[in-house]
Amino acid sequence: MSPIRSVAVLGGGISGLSTVYYLTRALPRHVPITIYESSKRLGGYIQSTQFVLPSAHRNTGDDHVLFEHGPRTLRVSKRVSSVNIFDLIRRLNLIDELILVPKQSRAAKNRYIFYDGRINMIPYSVPSMLQFYFSQPLFRGMLLEVLREPFRQNRPKAAVETNDESIGSFMTRRFGPRITERLISAAIHGIYAGDINLLSVKSILEYLWKRETTWGSVLPIWKRRTTLETKDPYSERHKEHLKALLEDNKEFMDSLQGTSIVSFRHGMQSLVDRLQEEVLKSGNVTVRYDDPVRHLENVVDGITVTSAKGAHTYSHVFSALPSRTLAELTEPPLAELLRKIPSVSVNVVNLFFSKPRLLPVTGFGYLLPKAVPREDNPERALGVVFDSDAVSRDHGEGAIPGSFQDSVDGTKLTVMLGGHWWNEEMPVKQHDKAIALARQLISRQIGVNETPVLAQATFQENCIPQYVVGHHANLRAIHEAVLAQFNGKLILTGASFLGVSVNDCVYNARIAVEDTVARNGKGISGLEAKALYDY
Ligand SMILES: Cc1cc2nc3c(=O)[nH]c(=O)nc-3n(C[C@H](O)[C@H](O)[C@H](O)COP(=O)(O)OP(=O)(O)OC[C@H]3O[C@@H](n4cnc5c(N)ncnc54)[C@H](O)[C@@H]3O)c2cc1C
């Protein structure tokens, strides 16, 4: 008899739902699977809402606009996590729902950084690099910094001893302050909403860390013949997965060749809704909504999950909860280690203006780097997404016609406020205050002064985990502690550990399930992909 007799999955975000999806494919139908979700819906931070326009702005009775309160796009790349999510999308029959943003479209090519009082375009090709270098203040003084990189001094003693370093320190050492504070900090704001001086280069920019370890620099073209040393036991596995996924999805992946990012006509919520529908079809999945988990206890025949509505024992428990939540349910030393993964909050402000083409430029949007002084960013903004350009509107140049999320034309923006800026300041949680700040920002920076016909602010508390310096060592310690305290019956997945993007969350859930099933439910933490080796 399989030791996997019953499974609880804690948390019904994309990580939890994907875990359940892969479990239903891997386990026999008689194994019951229970999802515990503290709220009344599944999806976690993935949430899309269709708002009906006020009557004065409607052409038809149900004219609507779609707002994303969390993630809005998925990245298309050759990475296994990206190909895997398209495999999932195909299996869920969601291909016709996709909005493809071609690499050659302005939405994909035109990305901006606000600096020196204006928006500066980021180069998308070698000729554009030369053109922008001389015309945009953002790049002033950077050429020398790049040319000096291969000759910069190697890793300092402190970074060697801790075997990690902050992105800020690493990049300043390699390239100097301009590239670090103007470009790198902006990119990090766009993904992690985090502080480059706290986040780990080893965990977030692993390939750069490895390059420096192997080549002594990150750019030396002439040294690239030496392959990067890797003792990663999972790298072969990822390669095999990738090969199989590419074979299974050849036609679909070929059709995505010229695509940069994708979204869905009915929003990212489609992914959650179809996953939910699919897992419920299997007949052995139960969802316990509105039932927050309060405690986990290791018992002889499994783990007892105590939630608001009762206590039940399962042979195996997958946690897809944020690490700080799991810390509240467990005992030290595991709980202490889980608390070492902090997170930041973001206020997501969605705005819709009835007038189309209000923006001074076309593109994906702009980011605000650390180099912008406080007086130029009193709103503590991280960036602005031009949604009506980025995913919703067909703006020519090969975009798929008719791929609208909204039934009317207009200008749609999302302003992201907060993140690490609120480490030292009070976060703005209030709906109206956040909208007022967002409007103040876009009025000053891009001259949008109109009154929005729809405005929505969503305070996303502790929504993005921060992989701070020492994250990798902490993962290894969590791996040991979870095995010691739960004997391989508690498996960890979710954005707190091995990657924050939706693609990563889904792929890591798949790996956690495959490992658990392959080893018959014995001796797995879910963190093996990183915890079993150092680099
Ligand atoms: C504003 C924003 C924009 C983003 N943009 C992108 C993007 O464009 N592309 C991209 O790839 N990624 C993006 N991300 C990242 C990505 O969306 C998240 O990392 C991912 O959705 C996290 O999923 P998760 O399931 O791990 O966690 P969560 O979504 O946090 O799910 C955890 C679930 O657990 C539930 N829960 C909490 N406590 C308990 C408890 N005690 N008992 C039971 N249930 C509980 C919660 O209600 C929730 O449903 C973005 C994130 C944010 C916040």
What's the structural blueprint in terms of helices and strands?
Layout: E1 7-10, H1 14-26, E2 33-36, E3 48-52, E4 64-68, E5 74-75, H2 80-91, E6 98-102, H3 106-109, E7 111-115, E8 118-121, H4 126-135, H5 142-148, H6 157-162, H7 167-175, H8 177-192, H9 201-204, H10 206-215, H11 235-248, H12 250-255, E9 259-264, H13 269-281, E10 285-288, E11 293-299, E12 302-307, E13 310-314, E14 316-319, H14 323-329, H15 334-339, E15 343-353, E16 365-367, E17 381-385, H16 387-392, E18 411-418, H17 431-446, E19 454-465, H18 471-486, E20 490-492, H19 502-518, H20 528-531
Bound molecules: flavin-adenine dinucleotide.
Q: What features would you describe in this structure?
A:
The strands form 5 sheets. A 7-stranded mixed sheet has the order 8-7-16-17-18-15-19. Among the domains are: 177 residues, FAD/NAD(P)-binding domain (3-Layer(bba) Sandwich), CATH 3.50.50.60; 140 residues, Protoporphyrinogen oxidase, mitochondrial, domain 2 (Polyamine Oxidase, Chain A, domain 2), CATH 3.90.660. The protein has 20 helices and 20 strands. With 535 residues, the chain is of the alpha/beta class. The radius of gyration is 23 Å and the shape is globular. Flavin-adenine dinucleotide binds next to α1, β15, β19 and α19. The site of flavin-adenine dinucleotide has 37 residues, from α1, β15, β19 and α19.
